[in-house]
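Sequence of AraC family transcriptional regulator (Marinirhabdus gelatinilytica).
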Amino acid sequence: MQVSPSFDTWTAGFLIAVAMGLFLFTVLLSNRNKKTVPIAFFVLGFSLILLQYVLYWTQYQFMYPYLVFFPPVCYFATGPLLYWYFLNLYNKPIPRYFELHFVPAVLCFIPYVFNLLKNNGFGIDYVPLASLPQYYQLTIVHLVVYALLLVVLKKKNASNTSEYSTIRNRWALVLIVLYVLFITAYLSYYILVNFSFFNAEWDYAISIMMTLSIYTIGYFTFKQPKVFDGEFYAEIFLPNVSNFESFENQILEELYKKITSHMAQEKPYLDNELRLANLADQLGFTTHLLSKVINKKSGGNFNQFVNQYRLEAAEDMLKKDPSIPIKMVYFDVGFNSKAAFYSAFKEKHHCTPLQYRQGLELS
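Predicted 3D structure, token representation.
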């Protein structure tokens, strides 16, 4: 006799965690900072695994069999996703052919699709790679390998002892610990299931770790969103609250160096349509943070800060080619009007660009 589908306290709680995870996925994916994309899909992966577990425990998977073979896909995807996020967290370049990290997940996705079509009456008899998702040993090895990669990456970046780096490393450690606990729970299940004292409800341990991960990430998402932007300029993990002001100044200095380095290397100021929001998107900052850093460290507003670079570029052009038309100069360096160029130029040099050029010719 088939048991009627039903929820108990545990499965109801896990279902709430699934809803929380799906909500977090939406929040993180809607963030303008693309560096949070991997962690968003990491949360989605845990949420879908947990959802299938809930469907299995409650017997609802017979009514909704759409995720029956999907968890292995997520198991093989979570490691690369978390590794990708760590590369972003430590501002490391994404290696060429990084997509190859997701090959195991894609291979598991193939039998999932065929089984899905088969179970929905599409008349499919052959399922390629059907046995691959059943080899839990491969899953465990894969999870452990990526846990080690995360530890190595964190260790390589532990030499910087600034408070900014310390906070980043502590956040990385939180994620590593959660991931290792998840792997431990997953491994323990397949070890303990061979003993007579094993209780089927111990399977909940894996789900508890996934739930803990979802809620921990959720806490930091809402308590301090800056942790996901790599900004860390508020009090997270601060060892000494009394040092907050000096800590904030240190963070602002590091962020300002990042801004000036970007301005020098990428030359975004040459874009006539550059706005605060555009530059914030390029740097992965919020507009509020970018404005605050520029105001505090440069002593001027956004337009004044950008115009400094444009004026320096204009000066170089006038020195290299004294015959170049003024109109070409101001447009090529990023000013979108003659009036704005002349106003900024006169404020700095107390003369017009034409007078400046004449002075160069006389010197």
